[in-house]
Design a protein that fits this description.
33% strand; 6-stranded mixed sheet; 6 strands
Length: 160
């Protein structure tokens, strides 16, 4: 009987240790992804295409409204050069609403506001939401592998 109790206590101890370790790993991964998201926002706001691209996986896909899928770093960079050069979205704010992680993959659901032409351009901010899929790469860095933004529908009179 005593051995059974000891075995049960050991089993519970191992389960508790595993749960604590899993929670610590989850917190660490989520913290790393939040830091990577801030680097992404900082890169956009600074107009730093190289820093932006460092957070995009080689095989990434961007699913932007009204456009065919933008697949691969080369095409994302080419379009990014045009966007950064034009100043579109040069000011970006992000609020992470949900971040879930399991193993090497995570997804993020967030809201954003961006100012076409920059914050001082006089243009009204555009609000929207997105879902990003993050993947931990072989170098240990988290990179975006799927980016799916969607601007919110604007209310009010239609533009002519």
């Amino acid at each position: 009987m005593k051995r059974t109790r000891i075995a049960i206590l050991m089993l519970f101890g191992c389960a508790a240790a595993f749960a604590i370790r899993a929670a610590a790993e989850r917190e660490a991964a989520e913290s790393e992804i939040r830091a990577a998201r801030q680097q992404f926002v900082d890169a956009v706001n600074a107009g730093d295409l190289d820093a932006f691209m460092a957070l995009v996986a080689e095989d990434a896909v961007f699913l932007v409204e009204g456009r065919p899928a933008i697949e691969g770093q080369a095409l994302i960079r080419a379009i990014g050069e045009q966007v950064f050069r034009s100043g579109q979205g040069r000011r970006l704010e992000v609020e992470i609403l949900r971040l879930e992680h399991s193993g090497r993959l995570a997804y993020e659901y967030s809201r954003y506001r961006r100012w076409p032409g920059g914050e001082g351009s006089g243009a009204a901010p555009v609000a929207g939401k997105y879902v990003d899929v993050w993947r931990r790469e072989s170098d240990g860095a988290w990179r975006i592998t799927v980016h799916a933004p969607s601007d919110d529908v604007r209310s009010g009179p239609a533009n002519p």
